[in-house]
Structures are given as C-alpha cells and as structure tokens.
Amino acid sequence: MVPGKRFDRYHELGQHAFGEKLGLWIVVPQQLIVEVGVNIVYMVTGGKSLKKIHDLLCTDCKEIRTSFWIMIFASVHFVLSHLPNFNSISGVSLAAAVMSLSYSTIAWGASVKKGVQPDVDYTFRATTSSGKVFNFMNALGDVAFAYAGHNVVLEIQATIPSTPEKPSKIPMWKGV
C-alpha cells in the first residue's frame, strides 16, 4: 500500500494543497470551465459528424441545419446519461471500441497503401509572429482535446472501491 491519503475528487486534492476555502475557489471553476468547454466541443463535433454522414448517405434529401444535428446528438447523450450505470450501455461501449479500432485500421491501411508522397511540404506555413503564436495555441488546443478526460480521472477512480483487503490497484491495472 502507498502511504498517505487517497484523493477521490479534485476539490479534495485542491483543499489539501491550498486549504479548505482557497482549494475550492481554485479547483472548482477550472474544472467547470474544462467540463463545459469539452462538452460543447464534443456536441458540435458530434453534430457536424452526423450532418456529414447524412449528407453523404442521402444526397437527394432536404438540407438539415447543423444546429439541429447538434441538438440530436445532445439528445442522445442526454438519454444515455440517465442510464443507471455503465453496464447498461455495454453495447455502446463495444460499438465505440470496434469503431475506434476500425478508424485506426483504415487510417493505417490508407497510409500504407498511399505510401510516401513526393512533393509534400511539412514546413510551418505561418511566417508572421502572430501566425506562429496562433499555430502554437492551436497545437496546445489539440493536445488538450486529445486528453479531455483528465478532468474526471479522480472521479472515475472514486468509483472503484479500495480497502486494505482489496486494494483498488488490482482493478485499475486490469482497466489499463
């Protein structure tokens, strides 16, 4: 066992590090900003993806605005969020895992088939200082988007019970 206190929530960690009141004032607003921002990005991305699928599969259909697709995507998430536990959506998790592997396989296969392309320029396009700053910020945004689950890691960990007889590290390692 690792000695010390296990922090299951970010606000607990913030209170331990910065004090009872200041810890909440530092951690909670940041966590809310990240949560809201990530949810907005996912809703817009999901809505745009649904619109693109609709446009590709149904070229003769009437145009549906992107905002409606975003609302459809959000409605599905709203319904899924009210299921009692993750076991209720194991089929969705399986489908997501299969799709993720499929996307990766398709991307890898297409890259192998295409091979190295001549006359491809990988240099930075920005020449001005402001352009370079925007590229830098865009790169940081890409990294933040890729690791969007960081803001709930402790909350996920909190769902795994831990006692001296049955430490949580065993199911955590199984999850990894």
What does this protein look like?
The protein is mostly helical and 176 residues long. The chain is 68% helix and 0% strand. The protein has 7 helices and no strands. It is extended, with a radius of gyration of 22 Å. The protein starts with 9 loop residues before the first helix and ends with a helix. 3% of the residues are buried.
Short description:
This protein has helices at 10-18, 20-57, 66-81, 90-114, 129-146, 153-158, 169-175. It is mostly helical and 176 residues long. Helix 1 runs antiparallel to helix 2 and helix 2 packs across helix 3.
- Unreliably modeled segments: none
Number of helices: 7
Report the helical percentage: 55-70%
Distance between the termini: 19 Å
Our estimate of the beta-strand percent is: under 5%
Largest sheet: none
Number of strands: 0
Mean pLDDT: 84
List SSEs in N-to-C order.
Answer: HHHHHHH
Radius of gyration: 22 Å
Structural class: mainly alpha
The gross shape turns out to be extended
Subcellular location: Membrane
Domain Amino acid transporter transmembrane: 4-171
Protein name: Amino acid transporter transmembrane domain-containing protein
InterPro entries: AA_transpt_TM
